[in-house]
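Pair request: fold both.
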Amino acid sequence: MFGTTLNLLPRRAVFLGLVIAEVVRVPLRERMYQAYFPYATSHLADEPGFRFSTALSRRFYFACVHVLHRVGAYREVVDVVRRETLPRDETSVRYALVRSLFELGEFEAARDAASGATNDELCSMTDLAYHKAMVDMICGDEQSALDAMFWACRSSLHFFRPHQNIAARGSMLYRPNSFDVLCGSEGRLFDLCNFTGQRVTHVGRGELGIRLFERALEAQQRLRKSPPPLSAELTQLFERLDVSFDELRLVPEEWATQIGHLGMLDILFRMRELGWWSGKAVIVVRPGLIANAAFFELFKGFGRVLVIGETISERVAEELLSLQRWCGLSFNAFRLPDGRAVPWQDAGAIALEQWEREGRSHPLRDAYDASISDVAAERFVQLCSRYGMKADDWYVCLHTRDAAHYFEFIGTGQTHRNAPIEASLDAIRLITSRGGWVIKLGGPNSPKLPPLARTIDYALSEFRSERMDIHLIRHARAFIGTTSGLTNVAVSFGIPCAIVNAITTDAQLWNANVRFALKPVKLADGTMLTQRQLTMEPWRWRVFDAAVLGRSAAHPENNSAEEICQAVEEVLALAEGRSAAFETGYDTERLLARWKRALALPYFYGPSRPSLAFLARHEKHFLPEVAEGG
């Protein structure tokens, strides 16, 4: 409510009011800053040069800096803070500058600003100590990073928690166990490098991440040479699971907290089948944090599953999870059979290419078909009856990522991955005109479809459930999606997919049944980023975050209704065995050869390929010829 109200007022007037609230110490001021943050950052994504402060608000120097920092005006913090006065300023000013420079990807400058911090400052402000540790690590100074981590851990025990990925959503309340201490400096570096590697990606500097993730893998390798003494309870647990410490491969919580991550877990176990890793997987999950319990059930045949609070106590689970520093399967990077460490999704895309070359099947689809749910089948019959669909009618599932699911604001975070449902209406009509049905998936707050023949807005119906989501995808003739989690379910099941309005930093785990259309990314002068630019630094990493793109004067454009229809046409032809006839309408061999030459990373989209219509339409600007060796 605070944010909505404040956004109705002139921005500089609001900012001055927030500064005054800081000066007079209004009790709810931090909530006001937090509420206004998405509105401020969204505006800055459109107008990066906008300045909130005025000569009047800057007279209240400390309050002005604090509020600028809290509402996400990072560039303005850098402009306002007077570097020469830092030694005499409040610690909060130094932290505001260090964090702002970090968020802007200016790590050397952030390290310079942090280097003058005294031990008293690091002890009094945990976040400053941790940011100093991160920028020291980025700049290659491990000893200084460990010194800063000492102060961070001393002040906040949650920094002792083992860390691989933010998606684990660990509580700030944490009581360290013996493993958190025994892991020593290598354990601190394991946690720090994993966290910092993600954060540099979030701010558009992912090219630095792989070095940090590789250092985490090295720390784990060193720790594994000296296994820690196990408690009697853990020893009994391993005996019950029939897993020795040498065989143990921990799959921690973050692999299950998002449905897209479960798609990654599918590929992780395919990697084991390919001989890329060995050992016995122990999957640790929290019941309330599993993205889709019905989909997760399919993994129970691939490893031992421990559910915190049900099959294992919280206390023993925390001990077990601390062992991931020794034997956790990395979420961030993977060491290929040839010894190279690459971003995890790069490895996944390479593995998927090998998997399909060898003609292997879809393990999760096989697992689903072996455990068909009578409940889901019965509910499907009820769904058909309600909307007039016959049991043998064919249908296509549709899902578009939208802002409502995460309550996002345009221009911030991952909002550039969203797509308007209106652009898919012509594709819906195309499918229904051919006798098919369209079933729209999504959350209960997803945009409502207008009344359309042979179309079911299942997302807003009483039939919606996790199990039904999976059942509907499994039996669909095709799937239309975006770069979002449910798409990974369809891909895991081998359902032909039209992935439209796609935009990605990560290499994609898409199989040969996928045809995709990317969002064109346009620069300020109207030029379109090429396929080569989008698969190499710096642009590969800049497309991770909408705000980073905005600061880089780059803007993704949604696919047109025509482009979406054309991608759907191609996927229907694929699903119906008509691909050869469909492709005669295009110069297919030449287009695909040119596209492959344009990729900086040949495996970036796995075995999938772009929609032929998309390539033909954007060939001139998207696929410029690459010089030999260029």
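--- second member of the pair ---
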Amino acid sequence: MADHKKAGFTCSDVLLIPDFKEAVVLAGASGMQRMINRVNVMEVPDVIDWVRPGEFLITSGFPFRDQPEAIADIIPQLVEKGVSALGIKTKRFIDHIPDRALELADQLGFPIFELPAATVFSDVVRDIMERVLVQEARELSLLQSRFQKLSQQLLYGKGLEEFLQTLDGILNNPIVLLDDSNHLFLSPQAEEIVEADNPMLWSGLREESSLGVSFITLGERRIRVYVSAVNDKQYDKCLLVLLEWNQEHSVVDRLTIDRVGVLVGLEMINANARREVELKYVDQFLQDWITGRIVTIEDLRLRAEACGYALDDDQTRYVALVRFLNVKPSIRTMQQAIKRLRTKSRCVGLQATILEGELVLLFAEEMHGIRNATMEAILADMKVVFPAESYSLCIGNRTEAAEKVYESYNDAKKIHHISSICDYREPYVDYMKLGVFQLLYHLPDTEEVQEYRDRFILPLLAYDAKHNSQLFETLKVYFKHNRNVKKTSAELFTHYNTVSYRVERVCELLGISMDHGDDVLQLHLAMKLNEMRPA
């Protein structure tokens, strides 16, 4: 059964003490639920330097005997310091509390008690602290009871899901656990109100604020949350978040969240260890499958079933290698990306692993013969784990048989090699996009191939070096735009007559004609060969 009773000794409880039966609340009644955890006596003007949060500050009025209006000046400072309330004996040193002080107290919700002249301060301290200590003992007992119940759950292997469910019931508020990969674990109440696909909201608590009380917006509602770090060195970036959704947090609620962080940390270590072992088996299976080391379909089915992978015979599959265009991330970064892709992918059945130091993806078409939707889903996933435009997917040919996936992998490796040489930067590259390079790739690097390339390329490079011209660059752009002079001149920021002159000069140097189809083909092939193996 949930223990929802509000814990703590409050300003309103002061009036229940027999010695305070004649005390009067002069102002700040809206703050009577402020918690009191200690008592302090003010008989010097500079007491503001010594007060502590949660104190009930009492005074005979002696510091204000000559200037009662100073009470109004000190009230905002006491509120800022977290003092809970002020009790003043009147009639001895001051006749009454100034109206301005009472108005300020009302505005700030800061209770001011008028104490009878016969009040003995030692009795006040004893009466209040006795009750505070009794209340704290109850809170400690409640905290210990909660901790014992929750630790027993994890001890008997109930797991994080049931743990959060119990904690949710005890505190009567939703709980969110954020791990170091920004993965959310939600208690039952949290599942109803939290959007699991918005991890940035929760990671922002880790990055933008310190631990403790903070504020977030869920839907159209602005709520207070209490943020605690999971108390384990390996998981110092994990957060346990208590949402103030149904009722206000009590001190014991916040202490409960702080204490159970130890338990959560231990459970996450165990869960992570189990997950790491499972992932190693999955990785080994994927690597054996993609490289063709699993020979028969029967063995493949057994391995897939053991790893919890549904092997559908009717699926068309592809293998893709991720080519990083700028800086290749570390293996650790790629492993973190794999975890993210496996748990949060928009592409159903997407698998990822690392082979020969490269990030490899295995995926199936969402609909037979239609790959675009699948590619869009994968590219959306990639944007989450890597910066946009920092990678290109090199996709092998499709394979209809599960045991022939290695053929698509071998295709992807060739495409990766060719696109690296030719520096293709499209979001994804397959054989269709390689064009003639898929044929030129198979040409051996022989003297004959080199001589063919050099016969067309070297004269242009030599002429450019001698005359500081741009024949070679102009020719590249000229072929890029399908021999369109206007588009070529626009890209080169030069006049189209200049482009025409340079093309004519190329023909003169090489002894060819742009009106002769065979000459154009040979020159274009030489340019493509040079892209693969520069002269």
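Observation on the second member. The longest strand covers residues 221-229.
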